[in-house]
Amino acid sequence: MTGLADMQRRRFIQLSAAASLAGLMPRTGAAAASTARIALSPGPARVNIVGPPHPDTGVWCYNGTVPGPVLRGRQGGRLAVTVTNGLAEPTTVHWHGMRVPNAMDGVPYVTQSPIAPGAAFTYDIPLLDAGTYWYHPHFNSSAQVGRGLAGALIVEEPEPPRVDRELVWVLDDWRLDRKAAIAANFAHPHDLTHAGRIGNTATLNGKVRETVAVRSGERLRLRLVNVANARTFGLRFEGLKPRIVALDGHPVTPHAPPDGPGGDMVVLGSAQRADVILDMTGDPGSRARVVDGYYRRAAYRLVDLAYTDEPALRADPPDWPVAHKPNPLAEPRLDGAAYHKVMLEGGAMSAMLARRFREDRNTRAFWFMNGAAMTEMKTKVPPLLTFKRGTDHVIDMVNDTRFEHPMHLHGHAFRVLAVNGKAHPHRPWRDTVLVPAQGRTRVALRADNPGDWMFHCHVLEHQAAGMMGIVRVA
Prior knowledge:
Blueprint: H1 4-12, H2 21-24, E1 35-40, E2 42-47, E3 57-62, E4 68-74, E5 78-84, E6 94-96, E7 120-126, E8 131-136, H3 141-146, E9 151-156, E10 165-174, H4 189-193, E11 201-204, E12 211-214, E13 219-226, E14 233-237, E15 243-247, E16 250-255, E17 259-260, E18 263-264, E19 266-268, E20 273-279, E21 287-292, E22 300-307, E23 338-346, H5 351-359, E24 367-369, E25 385-387, E26 391-399, E27 405-409, E28 414-419, E29 422-423, E30 429-430, E31 432-435, E32 440-447, E33 451-457, H6 460-464, E34 468-473
Parallel strand pairs: 1-5, 4-9, 10-13, 12-22, 23-26, 25-34
Antiparallel strand pairs: 2-3, 5-7, 6-8, 8-9, 10-11, 13-20, 14-19, 14-21, 15-16, 15-20, 17-18, 21-22, 23-24, 26-32, 27-31, 27-33, 28-29, 28-30, 28-32, 33-34
């Protein structure tokens, strides 16, 4: 396969005018501290992803756009989202990172029946936590998300931090052929057993972009959302000093990103989000590159921040506070918390997988949690973990595989306590955490949202091939 840098920059990228803010921030209605009623229709469409002269790409998307419309509401309000299925197969919508009632979680056969073609279902979503979230199907996820079904969901604070502008960046990648069509090789054995379906064309808000227009001296709030099936993004903002102020929607002590290959990187595993404060300190008429350097041998320029010729808005960055107010999450008590070890096993080059193949040549399970695999949500399996409601728990995820896993727990947020035995300096609240290859990550939570909740790897091909289970809170 042609490398992403070559394919994206030599075959697909076309020079374009600076993108306008309106083009980068699709919105649905105004935010209000009440119930916002929204209609979503997943269905097929044709959109131009890579730019002329290349043809439009056949996609599946919400309301005819890639990504889907940015849904917005105010913390303390609700969203009533009626989903009418325009696909030829069933679907659901999962509200990723949202602490919703179990019946609204969008997991087929676990929390609801799938929405049949032509049928509709209304999700009633309380907006408990401010922050950056997203929505996507949880039915045939690898193909439905991989064909374009994803969108950002923003819950606005009653008193947001002061900035000059806010940009929502939905990051994705696509596996395209030379005619800009989506490759139909979903569930390919290599993807199922290795790193997942990593694409060859990266997009920002559904398009390959050359530039995003900025003004010298302005302060931006970037809401970054990774909706890719499997790709981890590691963004370097060259010549700038980004500050991370929220992760997976929840405020964190403002800090510079940790050192990564070739410079500071904002790292987003599949399904993760980050809010970043970015002061535009370059000169009018200049440019600053945003480089995805997570995969060292396949680094590429995602986009240029292109300064307009307008005079600088201000000479120095403003002294406005950047810290966000915390969300109303129950702090887990570590003294007396129950301890649980979850082994992540399987995949290519795995002794466990080799043993399973010797036992059953027809197995569809390639990944395991505590020795068990769950390849279909409609198959009744015992819960992986069972928690009494209101109790505190520490989950120690030990990755005995050659690949990293972004592990996601539905219905809850958890504190990240340590990675590879080293205490996390910020102990962020997250709903999706990267567990390093041959490493371990320890988290803590209070089990305060009753129901059966999915706990799975958000490399969607790993999920489909067994790395998912149920956490029961009762």
